[in-house]
Design a protein that fits this description.
About 35% of the residues lie in helices and about 15% in strands. By secondary structure, the protein is of the alpha/beta class. It binds manganese (II) ion (MN).
Length: about 325
């Protein structure tokens, strides 16, 4: 049976607001009451540098922070495990996916988001790194020394967008030129996720053998449904379609891992903040439901008990990853 490993990634340097780093603690508590979780603890970004301005804001923290995330995931034993990464802003997906590519070089990534997150440092108008992780995954370090540790690349044909509707002009060109599969919020409402996902997975992975990573940004939902996130966008896809997308991915049997990002408990009223968290949880439960069924079946096999909070264990394996990157050994590999 697959176990769920939870990695807390309280990272907020990819955007300007505080609060998004508090999400791992909240979700850890909520999820461990309903799922059997192996808790890997939180990553610590305090040694990754100081906040700074520049073409990429907080560039060093974003670069070295993602090196830390990648190393933590690459060195984790993921055999028979589902990895749940809880951010944090979406900037963490550079590290999570880079780490996963170490285990599965042919990984397919389903990016569920209102945005493209594929700006280059030069095309970005804000300088916020959470709008750039995909450009580093696809293009490598782009001459930035804090990203010189990047080794793996995500092939554009293995990336699938679901739900975007707020892209910069240059992002549109990048997506078009790279031939990345793109299903907007409008497409989802028109055709439904089931037919789109089937088509997309067949194109990205014709043999149907690759593992799938789900990178879920809560801002994919309509702005009226998610008060507690930093960059809300109108004209979102129907809630039911996005929730269905999560369970369909689980049903493939190939979903290996998931990022849950951009929930900011400091935004919205007490009530609307809670609604955002509940919606993110509902999505996560849907993505994990195929695993939960197995837990239920197993408990029935072994004892005539219903699964309730009294027999769900939260196994805590706190690990403290140390940042052991220094820039020097990698500097020469970064083509400036
Ligand atoms: Mn995003």
């Amino acid at each position: 049976m697959k176990q769920i490993k939870l990695l807390g990634i309280p990272f907020s340097a990819g955007q300007p607001l505080s609060g998004v780093d508090q999400a791992p603690e909240i979700f850890r508590k909520e999820l461990s009451s309903s799922h059997e979780i192996v808790d890997l603890g939180d990553l610590d970004f305090s040694l990754c540098g100081e906040r700074s301005t520049g073409i990429i804001k907080n560039e060093r923290i974003c670069g070295l922070g993602n090196a830390l995330i990648s190393e933590a995931i690459a060195s984790e034993n993921l055999t028979d495990s589902f990895l749940l990464n809880i951010g944090g802003d979406h900037g963490i997906a550079l590290g999570t996916i880079h780490g996963l590519l170490h285990h599965h070089p042919d990984l397919v990534v389903v990016w569920v988001d209102a945005h493209g997150d594929i700006n280059t440092p030069h095309s970005s108008t804000s300088g916020n790194f959470h709008g750039m992780p995909l450009s580093f995954l696809i293009n490598g370090c782009q001459g930035r020394e804090d990203f010189a540790w990047l080794r793996k690349r995500l092939a554009p044909e293995r990336l699938i967008y679901m739900g975007p509707r707020d892209l910069d002009q240059e992002e549109k060109s990048i997506i078009e030129e790279s031939g990345i599969q793109y299903y907007s919020s409008e497409d989802i409402n028109k055709y439904g996720v089931e037919v789109l996902l089937k088509h997309a997975l067949r194109a990205a992975d014709p043999l149907g053998k690759s593992r799938i990573h789900l990178s879920f940004d809560v801002d994919v939902f309509d702005e009226t449904d998610v008060a507690a996130t930093g960059t809300r966008v109108k004209d979102g896809p129907r809630k039911s379609e996005i929730l269905k997308l999560a369970s369909l991915l689980g049903d493939t049997g190939r979903l290996q891992s998931m990022d849950l990002v951009e929930v900011n408990p400091e935004l919205g009223s007490t009530e609307t903040m809670k609604e955002t968290i509940d919606l993110a949880l509902e999505f996560t439960h849907s993505a994990l439901s195929h695993l939960l069924v197995k837990v239920l079946q197993k408990s029935r096999d072994t004892a005539p008990l219903f699964l309730d909070s009294s027999n769900v264990q939260c196994q805590v394996q706190k690990k403290y990853y140390q940042l052991h990157y220094s820039l020097e050994p990698f500097g020469h590999l970064c083509h400036l």
